[in-house]
Amino acid sequence: MSKHGKTYVESKGQVDREREYAPAEAIKLVKDLKRAKFDESVELHIRTGLNVRHADEQLRGTIGLPNGLGKEVKVAVFAQGAKAQEAEEAGADVVGAEDLAKRIEDGFTDFDIAIATPDLMPVVGRLGRILGPQGKMPNPKVGTVTMDVRKAVEESKAGKVEYRTDRTAIVHLNIGKTSFEDRALLENYAAVIDEIIRAKPSAAKGRYIRTITLASTMGPGVKVDPSRTRDIVEESAPASA
């Protein structure tokens, strides 16, 4: 089993493992403890009390982060005719139909999000074994199977991200970069928490949000107080002033 390096151990030692930090404090600490020379992503991990084996306790959707992700989002669109032109005008990085499907079957996956018009889903369907495990399969539930291609591409480029519980009922999301201002990260964090609460399945029982952890790509996890879900940005004003 590999061991963590000296700098990671030192960073971890600066985190109180028993404490649940206020959101603004946690974000500042995550930024202070960044270790890599590159601009690390800030990761958010929310453990829910959902029983994801039950269909009525699945949690999945999309959210547009107010301050984006701090990276270029590459979008692939399955469309033809006027809709293909619409996708190109909206800024899609690659557009195609059967030809795009063939490229993906041959190993092309250099994109973050795939969007498709409904008429091309029979073509896209055969790519499930490739795109599914990567979380890139177009899905009408999250707005990536649509005739409004322009809107879907523009929202994706602006930082709209998909969230879903994994098999252990945890939601994993990036909310920006360590180079972001504290307030920008806090606003993205607050937007995600608001959305997760809004999307709570009606069949959910018991404690919904169990734990919340923030971390940079290479840094240690910082526990966040899961009870702090309202007025997150407003509460931070005195501390950040």
UniProtKB/TrEMBL annotation:
What CDD domains does UniProt report for this protein, alphabetically?
A: Ribosomal_L1
One GO term under biological process is:
regulation of translation
Q: Name one GO molecular function term.
A: rRNA binding
Subunit (UniProt): Part of the 50S ribosomal subunit.
Q: Which InterPro entries match?
A: Ribosom_uL1_bac-type (IPR005878), Ribosomal_uL1 (IPR002143), Ribosomal_uL1-like (IPR023674), Ribosomal_uL1/biogenesis (IPR028364), Ribosomal_uL1_3-a/b-sand (IPR016095)
Family, as annotated:
Belongs to the universal ribosomal protein uL1 family.
One CC-aspect GO term: cytosolic large ribosomal subunit
Q: What NCBIfam families would the database entry show? A: rplA_bact
Q: Which UniProt keywords apply?
A: Repressor, Ribonucleoprotein, Ribosomal protein, RNA-binding, rRNA-binding, Translation regulation, tRNA-binding
Q: What does this protein do?
A: Binds directly to 23S rRNA. The L1 stalk is quite mobile in the ribosome, and is involved in E site tRNA release.
**Protein's recorded name:** Large ribosomal subunit protein uL1
